[in-house]
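Handover notes (outgoing to incoming on-call)

Open items:
1. Methyltransferase domain-containing protein: sequence verified, structure written out, both below. Nothing else pending on this one.
2. Nothing else urgent.
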Amino acid sequence: MGRRKNSNNDTNQSSSSFNSSHQLHDAKIRFEDPEETTECSTHDESMCEPDDDSLLDGDDKTSADYYFDSYSHFGIHEEMLKDVVRTKTYQNVIYQNKFLFKNKVVLDVGAGTGILSLFCARAGAEHVYAVECSHMADMAKEIVEANGYSNVITVLKGKVEEIELPVTKVDIIISEWMGYFLLFENMLNTVLYARDKWLAEDGVVLPDKTSLYLTAIEDAEYKDDKIEFWNNVYGFDMSCIKKQALMEPLVDTVDQNQIVTNCELLKIMDISKMAPGDASFTAPFKLVAERDDYIHALVAYFDVTFSKCHKLTGFSTGPRSKATHWKQTVLYLEDVLTICEGETLFGSMTVDQNKKNPRDVDIMLKYTLNGRRCSVSRIQYYKMR
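Methyltransferase domain-containing protein structure tokens:
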């Protein structure tokens, strides 16, 4: 199999459609093509170096400080705003469901440039409180003023856990909190904190459901390039680095033709009801081979659902859907698995916050295959950082 493509992988499929194997809801979910409707713009999850000024601050900064510093760079926001699947879905959710926003008080958690707040204001919100901890908050204020919404949108610079709102309750909390592998950067807990502190009893969280999926791929060529490369580096043995390389999940776009098995639902998160601790979990999986092939890696991706809309709406970050800036998360296996059609790779995945840096994600993968041509049982550890 050749190197995975970085272009949109399924040009015949709406960017927002579930894979046929998905079983999140019995109801049909309308995953619209973002090109169907109005304008564009919004937010992302990649990490940048801190501003030059921050380097002068000595050792006082924590990893959380560097996290917020990274979102001071306009390039991250440009990438997020240009992610049409992401931004247009939010825009369509807001503009096509104005009944949710009309005369309502909205809290935008992690507002970035303020694009979601602007969408809400234009949809008729009574007031929007846009909370942003990075220096982008200063630009958001200017953007709000430049577009004539200073009387509707209040930008608050600071951490959600530390600021005070001028109101005791809000009707809607909206946020684009999802990171790579859904949970990287751990902004979800901030949304849950805001929900518990400010959301009215009959209030709405948008989006309100996310689902994490797992599948398996053949990826010999790229695994050789990224992992086996260390066996011989200009004639020198650097294979000790392979262990570290295997532990670091790769964020990349997977070609759907590389998929060898079914796609298994690992976890559904109901943002309106879940507790902060629910983001740490262990989930079993059974991946059944759809053809005779090799498995070099498991691939995780997520779907996002807005179930409170007039028509159930959402988008997928899976390999069979239009590419987003989240791409997919590739976890290379220590073994090359030889699997035959109909055979099952059994296992479980444990996901938890890193103890030292809660924005990092620790993953433990257990897998077992007892097939005609391959028998293996192993535990592997990964760290997203």
